[in-house]
Amino acid sequence: MNPWQGPIEQIDDYRFRIPKSYMNEMRVPGLIYANTEMLEHIKGDSTPIQVANVACLPGIIKYSIAMPDIHWGYGFSIGGVGATEIDKGGIISPGGVGSDINCGVRLLRTNLTLPDIEDRLPALVNGLFRNIPSGVGSHGSIKLSPKDIAMVLHTGTQWANSHGYGTLEDMLYTEEQGQLSFANPEQISQRALERGHNQLGTLGSGNHFLEIQIIDKIFDPRIAGIFGLKEQQITVMIHTGSRGLGYQVCEDYLRSMGDASRKYGIYLPDRQLACAPVDSPEGKGYLGAMACAANYAWANRQCITHLTRRTFEQILGLSDKEIGMQLVYDVAHNIAKIEKHMVNGKETRLCVHRKGATRAFPAGHPDIPEKYRNAGQPVIVPGDMGRASYVLVGTQLGMDEAFGTACHGAGRIMSRTRAIKEAKGRSITRELADKGIIVRSSGRETLAEEMPEAYKDVNVVVNILHQAGIAIKVAKIRPLGVVKG
Amino acid sequence: MVMDNTLDITPTPNQKRFDFFEHTADIGIIAYGKTRKEAFTNIAYGMFTLLAGLDNVTPKKSINIEAAGYDQDELLVNFLSELLYHCSTKGMLFSKVTILELTPTVIRAKACGEKYIPGKHQLLQEIKTVTYHQLRIEDTGCGWEIQVIFDV
Q1: Which of A34, A201, A232, A311 has the fewest CB atoms nearer than 10 Å to its CB?
Q2: Model confidence over A111-156: pLDDT tens digits?
Q3: A163 annotated active-site
Q4: Which is the catalytic residue, given A154, A208, A333, A408?
C-alpha cells in the first residue's frame, strides 16, 4: 500500500489533524489520536486516506476520528469513529460497523487468585477448549428453532437469560443491557438466519478468544474498587461477535446500500462506504437488521459465559458462589448507535459509528449501570495473547471530543500472511509457554496469525488515550491461559 | 451445452491460474485468464483454494449459481458471495465451476463439489465477506486479470 503523502497537522503530543482542505469533498477534518512514532506507522499503510474518506459522508459532524489502534479496514478503518447528524440527512453505513457486527468483549471477575487455579490451569484451558466450540465455521450444541432465533434477534441477552444461560446481573452489566430495542427481525434475510441457527455459544476463528487472566496492576484504586477489581484477582475475558449471521447481514446490506447510495446521489470516495440516510427506508432497514445481529452477539457472549462458568465449576470442583464469576462489563466494538450528544451547546440526535472502537461514557451518564455511575463506564481493551489487556474508564473529555469513545484493542501491525511467514520454524505455543501462558487453538495457522508481534503494543495504545485524557487507565491484566479460534 | 462456450476449472498444466497476495489484515487473489470468463472461473477456484484443501473434493453434486449486478464489479462480488453462501450454510466445497453465461451484468454457472466431511476435507480459512477494495477486472492486453481482497 502506498504511504500517505497528504498533510497532517500536529495539534498536541497526542492529537493530529487531517485538514479539510486535503480533499474537496471532506465535510469535516480528520482527528487521529497517536504519538509521533505511531503516526509514522499509521502513515505507512495509508490509513489516513480512510479517515479522510469518512469525513466526506453526508451529515458527519465535528471530526472523522481515528483511535491509536487504527489500522486498515474496509470503508472505515478499524479504530474509526464517525458520527452523523440524523436530522440533517446523516447517513448510516455498514462499512462503519464492519462485517462482524457487535464483535465485542466482556470481562468476568472471580473470587479466585492464582494459588486457587495454578495446578488446574492446563485442565481449565483444555476444558474451555473442549466445551466452547471454536475454529472455522464452528457449530454449537445450542440449536435454535425459527421461533427461538426470532427471539434471540429481538431480545438478545434476555433470551439467553430466560433459557438459563445468565442472570439479571449479567444483563445489567452489558452495554444496552444486551438488547437493542430497534431490532427488526423482518429485515433479516433467510440466508442470515440459516447461518445463525447453529452458531450460538461458539467462539469462531481469527482474533476471537477466551482468556483466563490475572490482574497485574491497579492504576486507580477507587474506580477499580467500584468495578470489583483488585490485584492478583483471576479474571476471564471473552472476545467474539455475531458469527456468520453478522457477516451475512453486512453482505446483504452492502449490496442494497450500493443501490441506495445511487438513489440518494451520495458521493462515495470508496465503494465500501455505501450508505443511506438513517431516516430513509434503506437506513432504517439496515439499522433494524444490524440491531438483530448485535443482539445475537450479546446472546452469544452470554451463552459462552454460561459454558465458562460451568467449566470452572466442573474443573475446580467449586460452586458458582465460591468462584463468584460475575460480569464486570460487556462492550460492543463494531456497532452503530443512535445517541444524544451535545453539539454546539445543543442536544443532538446522532448516529455514532464505532468500528473497532468502544463506547466510553463518563461518570454520571444515565446509560451506565447505577453502581458504576460515580466512576464512569468500564472500557475493556484486549491486547495480544502474549502481553496484556486493560480496563479503562470513560471521561467527560472523551465524551465532548470523541463522542464518548475509546480504542478497542492493540490493532494489527502485520498482515496475516506476513505473520505466518515470520512464525515459520517457530513454535508460538512454546514461546508463550516460556512466558507462563498456556494456549490452545483449533486453527492450524491461527496462532501464527495472532502472535504477539502481529499487533501494536497495547501498552502504548492505551497510554496515548490516557495521556490525551480520552479514557483513563484502571487496571492492567495479563494472560495465563488462552483459547483461540 | 456448447462446449466452446463453457470452461471448467480443472487445472491446466503450465498455466498459472491465480496468485495470493497479502494485504494488511487480509488476503487477496489475482486470477488470470485468456478470457474474462476464464478469469472469473479462476477467481472462484482461487477462493475455494483459500477456504479448503480441494485435492480430495469430488465433484459429485452440482448446484446452479446465478448472480446479477449493477456493473461488472458488483456482478463479480455477488457471484463470489453466492458461491460462499453455499459453502458457509450448506457446507459445500466446490472444486469445479462451469460458467454457462456471462454478460457484463449477469452470470449463470454450474458449481460442482461435495459437502464438507470432517476428516476427509480440511477447512483452512473462514471468509467473512468479498470486498470491493482494490477490486479490478482488467484486460491487460495479454489476457484478463481479476483482483479481489477477502475479509477473513
Answers
A1: A232
A2: 999 999 999 999 999 999 999 998 877 788 888 888 999 999 999 9
A3: no
A4: A408
